[in-house]
Design a protein that fits this description.
The complex is a heterodimer of chains A (147) and B (53).
Chain A: H1 4-13, H2 17-33, H3 36-50, H4 53-56, H5 65-69, H6 82-96, H7 103-146
Helix pairs in contact in A: 1-2, 2-7, 3-6, 3-7, 6-7
Chain B: H1 14-28, H2 35-48
The chains are: A mainly alpha (147), B mainly alpha (53).
């Protein structure tokens, strides 16, 4: 079943269905190749940083509400394990400037997830990030057009 | 910024990588932006993401 975000993308893309189809396909694959709870944490953090309200109201895993509530203080919180913290650090650096992620951040994630897990995580992060950035821009444009 | 090689192989999960490529191919084939601008943006993004494929 399509999510509300998938429906929104189809509305925006209109007759350009192949683009919407491929985006939906890679998004589904992203959640298959990475632990959904881990990716959901990172997705929510991206949504917070980019101000994507529509993503903040969605849950793609069984994350508990306390963990979500302390997500903005992940670095000092005891609610997150070291693997989650390394992935959240990488995610924030990825969002701010993907070309300036320090080796130390990348290697820490790789150590936790393994090489294949690290590659899958980065690819999944790319999909989630692009999808959220598209939402932020397109929802803003549609609001202005319809106002 | 100097970066080390971070993985020894990128030959993981070829299905996911192929799907990512298909999505990008569909995007650059959209006709709403002229081909030169599309290519400039594509190359800039590839450089920024260290993508040499």
């Amino acid at each position: 079943m399509e999510s509300s975000t998938d429906v929104f993308f189809r509305e925006v893309l209109g007759e350009r269905a192949p683009v919407a189809d491929q985006l939906a396909k890679i998004h589904a694959l992203a959640w298959e190749v990475v632990d959904p709870s881990l990716l959901d944490l990172c997705r929510l953090r991206i949504a917070m940083l980019l101000g994507c309200e529509s993503e903040l109201g969605i849950s793609n895993s069984d994350l508990d509400s306390q963990k979500i509530a302390s997500l903005s203080q992940w670095s000092s919180s005891n609610s997150f394990n070291e693997c989650e913290k390394s992935c959240l650090r990488f995610t924030e650096e990825f969002i701010v400037d993907v070309s300036s992620i320090p080796d130390s951040s990348a290697f820490t994630v790789r150590d936790h997830l393994g090489e294949e897990g690290f590659v899958n995580f980065v690819n999944a992060l790319l999909v989630v990030e692009q999808r959220i950035r598209l939402q932020v821009v397109w929802r803003k444009i549609f609001q202005e057009v319809s106002a | 910024m100097t970066r080390s090689q971070r993985v020894t192989s990128s030959n993981f999960n070829s299905g996911f990588r192929e799907s990512l490529s298909l999505w990008q191919e569909e995007v650059v084939q959209l006709g709403l932006v002229d081909p030169v601008t599309t290519e400039v943006v594509r190359l800039r993004c590839a450089e920024h993401h260290d993508c040499y494929t």
